[in-house]
Amino acid sequence: MAAAVLLGLVVAADLFACFADQTQASIAQDLLGGGVDEGLVRRAHHADTLYNAASVTQGITLVATIAVYLCWLWRVRTNAEVFEPHGHRMKRGWAIGGWFVPIGNLWLPRRVVVDVWTASALPGTRVRTTPVNAWWTLWIISLLVGRAASRQYDAAHGADQLADAARLMLFSDALDAAAAILAVVVVVHLTRMQRARILAGPAVLPAFG
Questions:
Q1: Cβ of 48: how many Cβ atoms within 10 Å?
Q2: Cα–Cα distance between 114 and 110 in angstroms, integer?
Q3: CA atoms of 61 and 54, how far apart (whole Å)
Q4: Is the predicted pLDDT of residue 174 greater than 90, yes or no?
Q5: What's the average model confidence in pLDDT over 11-21?
Q6: Measured between alpha carbons, how far is 107 from 99 in angstroms, rounded to an integer?
Q7: Whole-angstrom Cα distance, residue 25 to residue 15?
Q8: Angular region, 94: left φ>0, alpha ψ -120 to 50, beta rest
Q9: Cα separations in angstroms, 165 against 24, 35, 121, 156, 159
């Protein structure tokens, strides 16, 4: 529940960032039209303040979510070993360590989650990993687009480049919000799968009781 709630806060922070990005793009577009006056300068200052506030909000929610999400992932990975001791391609430590391996973190965490998902399905049922694949694909795309948008924003010179960077950042934040929504789906559904597996199987002692 905590992981799902914090992921929901990530969605809210991303939507706030989308609003800030759109405000930045609008100001940049107005600057292209010329005629800078006191009102436009005041709006530009407000847009910068809003953008910085959105960045801080995203950072705080991301750090808090990472901590809780990794705790959740470790526990469901531990449970999955009880359900299927030999159904995992990676050792338990990779549930956390895989996120911190450069380059490898683009696919290692997904592999862990897919194995947990498969091991948690009720015996005899058809396993569909579509939610996991959709979440991971969207998250990777948002990550790559976000990095490109940050570089473009930092290198922007002039209102036209700033407007383009703000629009790309808007696209990135929207993708991240969608990925976070899918992450909530994965967390909730996988937790329910494990509870159903516990109730259907022999008595075990799951990590989350």
A1: 14
A2: 6
A3: 11
A4: yes
A5: 96
A6: 9
A7: 15
A8: alpha
A9: 9, 22, 43, 7, 10
